[in-house]
């Protein structure tokens, strides 16, 4: 196949074989594993050593694992192979609504959120808000079923440029801004969000509390 | 058939062997023809299509004598080759519009060459180093993991809007639409016709409607619809209308027929 | 870490990254796949070319597969490294011929394959080739019946060590002999295997196109 090049020395050829065998192997190989491919009388140690030197500064190195050998991505480039890409995506309406309710009604439970929303809140939605760093599990309500209570985080305040939860506009301000219509029943109340440590009806979470393990609801 | 397939690349055409009277080893008539052609041991380009056709027909004939079931497509090919043979042997009449025997033979030759070419190509492909057999990818590949981290975005306004909208949706507002009685023009016209009857006297509209106007909230619609209908009745020559002063009573009577 | 050595040039570092990324991936990668790892402003083509040259004589080569690149063991070592396919069933003659016809005649339809082979093509044969990742449905021919057109994939190139379709063995002779045309040679131009996007007589497939829904033929 390689007819054009200059004649290859025996050693050069042996090096190529060791290189190819190591490259193709899913497992690190011992010298004894490689030797049959290279043929009789090859000085395996010196071949490996030569190959190791050739690859020393490259993006891939020949490394020793016990008494076996393998190609591995150069250590200083390992981080490259696990690349992270960020993309900005708008929050879904369901997530936004859930977040808003948690912000105003905290500490609040999933059942309470559902009561305000009028529809079920998927666990995925809460997970997403927690993953976004805006919502956290605060504790468990001291009521039957001990539901998890949710609240917002510092990250939430940061993202929305709020100094504290008390900066969230109240009923009159919402009306004044035209966000709430003025033809609402007098009974409508907007709660004052609570951002203290724990309310008197909340228990702290155990360190290993995984939250509501409840089945996925949507 | 499958066993024959497995080693077809290695197996040379059977040369001078006695023909097996068995078509099961062939993948169709073209395959059989190609095999017969290759037994002529010459380049396909210089093959005698006429003798090929004869061989095929002999083959099929032998098969049938041996009471072997011969598939329909082999018989179709046999019929076509018999036709080809006749065209090759009989000179073409000038008036003949059909393709000449030579043309048909060339076409068959082309198809045989093409099939053989593809077989050779398949063999050469298979003879190349194949991935996982002679040529290898990195054995200990490392998956390139790209974790896509979503950065969620929401504005403060959207947040407040989302909250307000939900609370508004959730708060049950008592609302009963105001239901108005409406006299349709059709109704008003019928009532007016009935009330005026044959009266030749000038009588005020409100007077006719006195009975209905008792309900205050209905007054506007009754007056409006009745007046509108009365104009229509005037236009049709049914009644006459008179008003002697602005805001004065509107008087109506049956239209008088001129004697 | 590379703390001791002399400072590495930007290009040297870029080369190491391309090398590491290509080495790590068992599948061929496009320049666009690699670029994000290397960073802004890298001359990808020249990096690849440099790397290809560096590896040209080695036991492992950088090879082109269509628009993608991959490290593969050197072709000339094939007989040494050869592993017998014990698990993989060899392709049937019908499948192999069908594959060859698709490769050399693409884009081609089932009817055309049948015309060349002189027998019906079982749908199972095409399914098998598509499952192997060597054949794909390209589109639909703009002729009556709108038959599906088939072509080969980059996986096909990779499996048979072809840089591109023009490397198909014997392609030029076949073309010269007019054997890649569908009719008698004299009368027409000779088409070449074509794996571009879509030819002018091909329509794209609908996303939910299931291919020729024709009943199973054998």
Overview of this structure, please?
The complex is a heterotrimer, with 2 copies of chain A (218 residues) and 1 copy of chain B (259 residues). Chain A has helices at residues 10-24, 31-38, 44-55, 78-81, 93-105, 110-117, 123-131, 154-159, 171-176, and strands spanning 29-30, 60-65, 68-73, 82-90, 135-141, 148-152, 202-204. Chain A is built from 9 helices and 7 strands. The longest helix of chain A has 15 residues, at 10-24. In chain A, the strands form 2 sheets. In chain A, strands 1-3-2 form a 3-stranded antiparallel sheet. A 3-stranded antiparallel sheet of chain A has the order 6-5-7. In chain A, helix 1 packs across helix 2 (31-38), helix 1 crosses helix 3 (44-55) and helix 5 packs across helix 7. With 218 residues, chain A is an alpha+beta fold. Chain B is mainly α. The longest helix of chain B is centred in the middle third of the chain and has 27 residues, at 101-127. The model of chain B is unreliable at 1-21 (pLDDT under 50). The chains are: A alpha+beta (218), B mainly alpha (259). Chain B binds chain C through residues 2, 5-6, 8, 27-31, 73, 106-107, 110-111, 113-115, 117-122, 124-126, 128-138, 141-144, and chain C through 21, 23-27, 37, 70-73, 75, 78-79, 81-85, 88, 90-94, 96-97, 99-101, 103-104, 116-119, 158-162, 168-170, 174, 177, 179, 184-185. Strand 4 of chain A pairs parallel with strand 1 (145-153) of chain B.
């Amino acid at each position: 196949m390689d007819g054009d090049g200059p004649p290859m020395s025996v050693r050069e050829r042996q090096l190529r074989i060791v290189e190819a065998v190591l490259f193709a192997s899913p497992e690190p190989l011992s010298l004894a594993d490689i030797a049959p491919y290279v043929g009789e009388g090859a000085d395996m140690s010196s071949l490996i050593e030569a190959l190791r030197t050739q690859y020393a500064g490259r993006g891939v190195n020949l490394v020793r694992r016990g008494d076996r050998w393998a190609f591995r991505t150069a250590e200083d480039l390992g981080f490259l192979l696990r690349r992270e890409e960020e993309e900005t995506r708008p929050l879904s309406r369901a997530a936004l609504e859930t977040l808003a309710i948690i912000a105003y009604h905290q500490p609040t439970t999933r059942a309470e959120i559902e009561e305000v929303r009028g529809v079920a809140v998927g666990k995925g939605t809460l997970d997403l808000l927690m993953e976004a760093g805006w919502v956290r599990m605060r504790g468990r309500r001291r009521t039957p079923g001990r539901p998890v209570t949710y609240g917002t985080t510092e990250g939430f305040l940061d993202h929305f440029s709020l100094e504290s939860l008390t900066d969230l506009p109240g009923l009159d301000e919402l009306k004044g801004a035209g966000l709430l219509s003025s033809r609402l029943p007098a009974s409508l109340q907007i709660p004052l969000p609570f951002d203290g440590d724990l309310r008197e009806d909340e228990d702290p979470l155990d360190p290993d509390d995984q939250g509501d393990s409840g089945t996925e609801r949507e | 058939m499958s066993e024959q397939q497995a080693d077809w690349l290695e197996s040379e055409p059977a040369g001078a062997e006695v023909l097996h009277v068995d078509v099961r080893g062939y993948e169709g008539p073209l395959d059989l023809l190609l095999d017969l052609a290759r037994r002529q041991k010459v380049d396909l380009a210089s093959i005698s299509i006429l003798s090929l056709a004869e061989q095929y027909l002999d083959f099929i004939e032998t098969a049938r004598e041996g009471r072997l079931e011969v598939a329909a497509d082999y018989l179709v090919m046999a019929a076509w080759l018999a036709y080809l043979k006749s065209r090759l042997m009989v000179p073409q009449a000038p008036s003949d519009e059909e393709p000449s025997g030579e043309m048909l033979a060339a076409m068959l030759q082309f198809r045989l060459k093409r099939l053989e070419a593809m077989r050779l190509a398949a063999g050469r492909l298979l003879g190349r180093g194949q991935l996982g057999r002679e040529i290898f990818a990195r054995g200990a590949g490392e998956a390139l993991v790209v974790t896509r981290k979503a950065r969620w975005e929401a504005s403060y306004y959207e947040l407040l809007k989302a909250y307000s909208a939900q609370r508004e949706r959730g708060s049950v507002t008592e609302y009963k639409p105001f239901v108005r009685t409406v006299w349709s023009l059709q109704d008003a016209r019928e009532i007016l016709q009935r009330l005026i009857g044959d009266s030749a006297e000038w009588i005020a509209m409100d007077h006719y409607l006195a009975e209905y106007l008792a309900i205050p909230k209905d007054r506007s619609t009754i007056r409006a619809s009745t007046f509108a209908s009365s104009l229509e009745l005037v236009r049709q020559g049914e009644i006459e209308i008179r008003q002697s002063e602005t805001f004065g009573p509107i008087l109506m009577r049956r239209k008088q027929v001129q004697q």
